[in-house]
Amino acid sequence: MLLPFFQDEFLEAGCDEAGRGCLAGPVFAAAVILPKNFHHELLNDSKQIDEANRYRLRQEIEATALAFAVAMVDHEEIDRINILNASFLAMHRAIDKLHIKAEFLIIDGNRFKPYPNIKHECIVKGDGKYFSIAAASILAKTYRDDFMAQLHAEYPVYQWKQNKGYPTSVHRQAVMEIGISPYHRKSFKITDPQLSIF
Question: Which residues are annotated as a binding site?
Answer without folding.
Answer: 16-17, 108
